[in-house]
């Protein structure tokens, strides 16, 4: 919470009477992430919402406080010192971070991550410390290799760890042998491929059963149990989603598995437990126009259940449902000034690419303008090996729709979450078939009578910015303008970097991942040159908006400046924006407002109401 221009603080809400008490607040920073240590104590870190990435000078730090505001303690430093003596209290180094797993929540101890970093973005390994949040005392957890992740078991203790070296991932299990604790290798597989033997650890059940996500030789990833003794994934899946990989988590009580929280077309829940099915039905009857996600209390004797309600038109609203009284009480909301009745409808659709591959997408249609040929924005997600979006309220799409534009967000091949075939089809297809999928989506919208073929713009950030430039170069007859923010402009630059900036792309990713997924800089040099916008700049004559962050370490600004200089030699309609303090995207409200205000004007004069028509 924040008031009268003060920094955002940490408040504890009493659900019995609705009162709130401020228990922690910084004078020079905002409260960041929060987690419960136990019933009485909270762990949190800091952030600074008033500065961009380029002006950041401090780490998040680590702090703890009781829920009544007493016994506040700083645990980890925020600056670059490895430790400092303050009132005879030795602080943990700045590179100590929260684990974001609940743990046992039965003592004052938590596990925290201790990162060893070579250069920005290049993690050497991730260690684990057991930390007493009252005394600050720690003890390290042994590790078998250059670990990069950990999983706590049902007792809140470290049971699994994993890491990757030279393109090979290994997963280890903690166990005792001959009376001594140690680590046993459970599995080993190639890091950057969809191996039939690979799996992702998910969680341990109350009975110690390990649940994992695995393809199990099939196209779609599903939830399986893992046979620890045999070191193999059990064949029979517990849940399979039609048309989607399983992404999400499992919901347990103290005795058993209750259900699955997953993302299909939208975020939703499959309950196995009959009591939970009944509770879901009761909440849904009270909130009929939204998807309602139930979050159970850690302590089963607590009657309160958290309910997050959302839809394509309604940003998330949080309620508390009392299991005893059946009362539903609103306790908070995001975007409180948004009126659902004024928002646009969003649909999950699928269309066919030219080679027959089915492409999932989200289509947002401006309110009360169904059935007409409208200007279209093809909005391309970054990554690109992630899922772009799901059905629900979305800031960018709703902003564009509120200005009269239909928005198509394709999950082009290479996007994750839609099966191994869909993912692998994107290997080494930057600027090629991945690009075809975007053009085919625009042509689908034209054929369906939803888009005016003379008023289509392509836009996106990061990989989406790259795809914007390639779309303008390859399909000038289709895309009349483009908006690229923080986009890659030269694939070879991703490998070589530039003297003027530090890239945060890990060296292992450059050596073992990028050659497989994008292309080898030597063996595939001809293809990479043919699909780099910088070398195709002379082809791009359409109006173009370029925006970059001066402190971006993922796609350093030299990508933007080199392309800007090249394209301006042939194109007089290029708008350039630089936010010196921003990184890979805009964090400051003033910059987001400025950028989207420029986007609004750019679209209006090129494909909107202000555009010249022939």
Short description:
This protein has about 625 residues and is of the alpha+beta class.
What is the topology?
Elements: E1 10-13, E2 20-24, E3 30-36, E4 41-47, E5 62-66, E6 73-76, E7 85-86, E8 89-90, E9 96-98, E10 109-119, E11 122-132, E12 138-140, E13 147-152, E14 158-165, E15 168-177, E16 180-190, E17 200-204, E18 210-214, E19 222-227, E20 232-233, E21 248-252, E22 257-263, E23 267-271, H1 274-286, E24 291-295, E25 304-310, E26 317-322, E27 328-333, E28 345-352, E29 358-365, E30 374-380, H2 395-402, E31 406-410, H3 420-424, H4 433-447, E32 451-461, H5 463-474, E33 481-485, H6 491-496, H7 507-517, H8 525-530, E34 544-549, H9 558-568, E35 574-579, H10 589-606
Question: What does this 3D model show about the protein?
Answer:
It is a single chain. By secondary structure, the protein is α+β, with helices and mostly antiparallel strands. The chain is 17% helix and 35% strand. An 8-stranded mixed β-sheet has the order 28-29-31-30-32-33-34-35, with helices on both faces. Strands 3-4-5-6 form a 4-stranded antiparallel β-sheet, with no helix packed on it. A 4-stranded antiparallel β-sheet has the order 9-10-11-12, with no helix packed on it. Helix 2 (395-402) links the parallel strand 30 and strand 31 (406-410). It is globular, with a radius of gyration of 25 Å.
